[in-house]
Amino acid sequence: RLGAYNCDLKPKSKISEAYGSDSISERHRHRYEFNNVYLSEFEKNGMLATGINPETGLVEVFEYKNHPWFIGVQFHPEYKSTVDEPHPLFVAFINAAIKNKNK
C-alpha cells in the first residue's frame, strides 16, 4: 500500500496516549499486511491490536501488553517527523526510555 491510510486507535492504549487521539492518518510505503487469520493467536500471547484500518479491518498497530513501551506499526512515522516537530511516537518512545531507564 502506498499513501496515507486512516487508523482507529484503541482508547487508552499507549499509541492513543502518544497521539492524544483515537483516530489518525499515516503514510505507508510497502505492500505488506498483517494476516488477520493469526490475530487471535497473537492476542492470546500478549500482543494487542490497538490500531485498525476502519475501511479494511487490517491491523496497523500492535502493542505488547506486558512491556513498558512496545509498539509496532505498519506505517512510516519518520515521514511526518522533523527536528522542530518530532513525530508523537518518537517523543513517546524517548519519554518511556527515560522513565524506565533504571528498570
Mean pLDDT comes to 93
Helix count, DSSP H or I runs of 4 or more residues: 3
Number of strands: 5
Radius of gyration: 14 Å
Portion of residues in helices?
Answer: 10-25%
Coarse shape:
globular
Task: Outline the biggest β-sheet.
Answer: 5 strands, antiparallel
Low-confidence stretches: none
**What fraction strand?**
25-35%
Helix/strand/pairing category: alpha+beta
Question: Strand-and-helix sequence, N→C?
Answer: EHEHEEEH
Give, in spatial order, the strands making up the sheet with the most strands.
2-1-3-4-5
Q: Span between N and C termini?
A: 38 Å
Topology readout:
Blueprint: E1 2-9, H1 14-19, E2 23-29, H2 39-44, E3 47-52, E4 59-64, E5 71-73, H3 88-99
Antiparallel strand pairs: 1-2, 1-3, 3-4, 4-5
Structure description:
The chain contains three helices and five strands, in the order βαβαβββα. With 103 residues, it is of the alpha+beta class. The chain starts with a strand and ends with a helix.
